[in-house]
Amino acid sequence: MLTAHRVADIRAAEKAAAASAGWDGLMQRAVAALTDVLARVLPEDAVPIVLVGPGNNGGDALFAAAALCRRGRRVDVALLDRGHVHEAGLAEALASGVRVVDGPVDHDHVVDAVFGIGARAGLDGRAAEWAGWVEGRRPFVVAVDVPSGIGVDDGVRPGPSIPADVTVTFGTAKVGLLVGPGGLSSGRVLVRDIGLAPHLSAPAAEAIEAGDGQRYRSIVPGPEAHKYSRGVVGIEAGSPAYAGAAHLCVAGAQAGPAGMVRFVGEPDLAARVVDRAPEVVAGRGRVQAWVVGPGGQDSPDPLISALADDVPVVVDASALAHLPERLRPDVVLTPHAGELARLLDVERAEVEADPLLSARRVVERWNATVLLKGPRTLVVSPDGRVRVNLSGTSWLGTAGAGDVLAGFVGSLLASGLDALEAASVGAYLHGVAGARAARGGPFPAHVVADELRGVLHDFLEGTLDDEEAR
Ligand SMILES: NC(=O)C1=CN([C@@H]2O[C@H](COP(=O)(O)OP(=O)(O)OC[C@H]3O[C@@H](n4cnc5c(N)ncnc54)[C@H](O)[C@@H]3O)[C@@H](O)[C@H]2O)[C@@H](O)CC1
Ligand SMILES: [K+]
Question: What transmembrane ranges does the database entry give (predicted)?
C-alpha cells in the first residue's frame, strides 16, 4: 500500500526522527536518495538546471547537485533569491563545480527544488516565470519532494505550477501528490525512505499497489464454499434506452468473486440478459449486495427497494438522482465529477479543482462511502479513510466502463469486503484491466469485463506486474 500523509504529520515525524538522526542526518538521507534518482533518470551527458528556492527543499537539491558534479557531471543552478538560500548547500555546490546561472535557457532537464512541504499553493514572481518557461519548453522535470505550486495537502493548483515527470518524495507520499490537479502534475511518484516510518501517524490517504493482493485473500472461496457462501449480487440496471448497461453491469459482476448474479428489470430486458449470460437468475431473491442505477429509468424505486434489504448497495448513474436524506457507510455512491457536482449543486469545475474536498462534502452530507470516478478515482469513507486509485489508462474514458465497474464493485461487496475496500479494490483492478485491454489499442467496455477475471487472479496470486498497473 502506498501511503500519503499531511504536512503537519510529516513535520511531527521528522521532528521525532531528528531526535535520533539529527536534522543534518535526515537531510543527508534525503540528499542521498535524491542524488541516486537523479543519477539514474537524467542522461549522463545532459546538463540539467536545478531551480532552487529559499528553504531546505532547495538545500536538498544543492547538496545533490554537488554530489552529481563530484561524479563528473555538469550541473547548472538558478537561485530564486540569492538573499534566501540554503547557504551550506550553496557553498558545497560551488566548491564542487556547479555553475550558477540566471535562469533556465535551453535546458531539457529540470530539477524543481523551488518549494517543498513548506509551500503555499500557487507561484508568483520569478517562480511563476520559471513555471511559464517550463510550460513553453516542456523539458523533463524531476520534482524534489513535491512539484512546486501545488497544494501539498490537497493537490489544488490555484495558479502557475511546475508539473513533473518524476517526483522523488521523502519518507511518505504527500496527499497532494496523489489527488486532484496535483496528482496529475506529479508524474511518477518515487517514495524514498529517510527513517520516518516508525514516527508516522495513520496515513491521510492510501493507494493500492500490485503487491497488495495478499490482503484480500478472504474473497477466494475456501474448500467448504458454495455459491451462496460466496455471496449473491443483485442488479437492477438498464432500460429500453440503455439496454447495454444491464449487460455490462452483469459482465462486471460476473468477473468478480460473488457466486451468483440476480437481475431485476422489465421482462424483455431480463430475458435478453439471461440469453447473453445464462448463469444469471432473473427476479428478486436474497442478495448480499445490490447494484442499482446503471443505464436505469429515472425512478426512485430501485434504490428504495435495495435499501430496504439492509445489505450494501452500489448507487450509480440514474439512481444518484434519488438519494434519500441520509444513507449508511455500506452504501457506495459512484458519481463522476459531473454527477457529484449535481449532488452538491456546484459547477463541475469546482469538483475537478478540489476533488477530495468535494467528495468529503458528499460523504458528510449523506453518511455514505463515495467513489468519485475520474483520472484519479477517489474513495472516501465516512470513517475518514481515503483511497486514491493510481491504476488505469485514459482509454477507460469509454461508454459503459462505469457500468462494468459498478457491477464489479457490487460483486466485491457481496463477497464480504467492506465498502471502502470493495470500492478501492474494484477501482484499482478495473484500472489495471483497462490498461491491459489498451495494449491492443482502443477497446469497448465489455473487453474490460473480459480482462477483469485474469487481473483479479493475478492480483490475488501476487503475480500482477507493477509496471502495467500504473
Ligand atoms: N524537515 C526535515 O526534516 C527535512 C526536510 N527536507 C526537505 O525540506 C523541505 C521542507 O523545507 P522547508 O521547511 O524549508 O520548506 P520549503 O523548502 O518548502 O521552503 C519554504 C519557504 O518558501 C516560502 N514559500 C513557500 N511557498 C511559497 C510560495 N508559493 N511563494 C513564495 N514563497 C513561498 C516559505 O515562506 C518558506 O520560507 C522538504 O520538502 C524536503 O525537501 C529533507 O531534507 C528531509 C529532512
Ligand atoms: K519542489
Answer: none
The number of the ligand 1 atom at minimal distance from the alpha carbon of 149 is 29
Mean pLDDT of 358-362: 98
Residue minimizing CA distance to atom 15 of ligand 1: 118
Cβ-in-10-Å burial (0-12, 13-18, 19+) of 225 comes to exposed
| pLDDT of 206 strictly over 90 | yes
Residue 60 assigned as binding residue: yes
What atom in ligand 1 is closest to the CA of residue 146?
39
pLDDT tens digits along 127-166: 999 999 999 999 999 999 999 999 999 999 999 999 999 9
Ion ligand 2: residue ranges with CB closer than 5 A = 112, 143-144, 148
Q: Whose CA is nearest to atom 3 of ligand 1?
A: 14
Residue-wise DSSP of 138-190:
--EEEEESS-TTS-TTT----S-----SEEEEESSEEGGGTSHHHHHHS-EEE
What percent of the chain shows pLDDT beyond 90?
Answer: 99
Cβ atoms of 452 and 429 closer than 8 Å? yes
With beta carbons less than 8 A apart as the criterion, state whether 147 and 164 touch: yes
* d(CA 97, ligand 2 centre) in Å: 23
Q: Is 367 annotated as a binding residue?
A: no
CA of 14 to the centre of ligand 1 (A): 13
In this predicted structure, what is the pLDDT of residue 467?
74
Are the C-beta atoms of residues 145 and 168 closer than 8 Å to each other?
yes
ipTM: 0.97
Report the nearest-CA residue for atom 28 of ligand 1: 120
pLDDT digits 0-9 by tens, 39-77: 999 999 999 999 999 999 999 999 999 999 999 999 999
Name the pTM for this structure: 0.96
Q: Which residues form the pocket of ligand 1, taking CB atoms under 6 Å from any ligand atom?
A: 14, 18, 23, 26-27, 30, 53-58, 60, 115-120, 122-123, 144-145, 170, 194
Q: What is the average pLDDT value for the chain, to the nearest integer?
A: 97
User: Which ligand has an atom closest to residue 60 CA?
Assistant: 1
- Write the pLDDT tens digit of every residue in 1-22: 999 999 999 999 999 999 999 9
By the 8 A CB rule, do 79 and 17 touch? no
Instruction: Give the CA radius of gyration of the chain.
Output: 25
Q: Tell me which H or E stretch contains 263.
A: strand 260-264
- Which numbered ligand comes closest to the C-alpha of 195? 1
- Give the chain's domains with CATH numbers: 2-205 (3.40.50.10260), 210-461 (3.40.1190.20)
Grid coordinates given for 247: 449487460
Ligand-binding annotation for 112, yes or no, is yes
